[in-house]
């Protein structure tokens, strides 16, 4: 009798223990399911301008309290969308990193609104030895002959565009690679007005790219450099030379070097020698 009672008590304790374990496991499952959400992440590394499909994405559990804004919970809604920036494996796919719905893949998907892409031919010198990479900013210098100047300073170099974004080098658009690449073409993001100016610049002279710090946003308006300013020569000014004979008066115009002076200057002729006096 005593043995039967003991066995009965053991069975009751065992049933109560199993019920407690089942209840606890159910409670834990409910708590865990309510504290996490399914978020779409990149299944592998993705380059900007690349269209998305199901094989490139996967769902992972993410703490509900730290889901980033713009995250997706459904793989189907991302079919065909184009990424505007590179994504690393396991990184959440956010709406801010995607091009608008209906955008086709390629370089056109990463061009900002109101901007255009234009390609210029470069070499290892013009392309800053290959250090001008996608995502960097450059200034554009043109070297040309200014016909309005005298022969001494006819060649001029001038910065015509500042803080221009490099979209691609050759056919490479990835912004994750920091290794320099010597290429023969660089694609820049410009406004329509800048595109017109750049097209004129490359038709009238030679172009050079100047790499700049990405945090430097200051605009610098330079006057350009000429042979005269480079070598420190004095500019030439026209001076009228009057020669009078017994029969006629002859007026000739000569150009002579004039010193830099903030006051007024006049041409002085002493015999056949001309000069400039400033006061």
From TrEMBL:
Organism: Cupriavidus lacunae
InterPro entries reported for this sequence: Pilus_assmbl_Flp-typ_CpaB, RcpC_dom, SAF
CDD domains noted in UniProt: SAF_CpaB_FlgA_like
Record protein name field: Flp pilus assembly protein CpaB
Superkingdom classification of source: Bacteria
SMART domains referenced in this protein's UniProt entry, alphabetically: SAF
Listed NCBIfam families: pilus_cpaB
Domain SAF per the UniProt entry, residue ranges: 37-99
Pfam families: RcpC, SAF
């Amino acid at each position: 009798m005593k043995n039967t009672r003991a066995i009965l008590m053991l069975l009751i304790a065992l049933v109560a223990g199993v019920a407690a374990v089942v209840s606890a496991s159910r409670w834990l499952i409910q708590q865990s399911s309510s504290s996490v959400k399914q978020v779409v992440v990149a299944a592998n590394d993705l380059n900007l301008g690349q269209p998305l499909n199901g094989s490139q994405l996967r769902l992972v559990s993410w703490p509900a309290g730290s889901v980033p804004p713009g995250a997706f919970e459904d793989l189907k809604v991302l079919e065909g969308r184009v990424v505007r920036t590179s994504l690393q494996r396991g990184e959440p796919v956010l709406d801010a990193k995607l091009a608008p719905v209906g955008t086709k893949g390629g370089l056109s998907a990463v061009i900002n609104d109101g901007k255009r892409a234009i390609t210029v031919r470069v070499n290892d010198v013009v392309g800053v030895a290959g250090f001008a990479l996608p995502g960097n900013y450059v200034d554009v210098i043109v070297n040309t002959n200014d016909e309005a100047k005298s022969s001494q300073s006819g060649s001029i170099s001038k910065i015509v565009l500042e803080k221009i974004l490099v979209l691609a080098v050759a056919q490479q658009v990835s912004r994750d690679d920091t290794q320099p690449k010597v290429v023969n073409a660089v694609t820049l993001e410009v406004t329509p007005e800048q595109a017109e100016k750049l097209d004129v610049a490359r038709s009238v002279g030679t172009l050079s790219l100047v790499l700049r710090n990405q945090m430097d946003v200051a605009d610098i308006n330079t006057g350009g450099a000429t042979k005269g300013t480079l070598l420190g020569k004095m500019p030439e000014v026209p001076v009228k030379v009057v020669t009078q004979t017994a029969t006629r008066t002859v007026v000739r115009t000569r150009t002579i070097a004039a010193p830099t002076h903030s006051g007024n200057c006049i041409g002085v002729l002493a015999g056949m020698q001309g000069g400039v006096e400033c006061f």
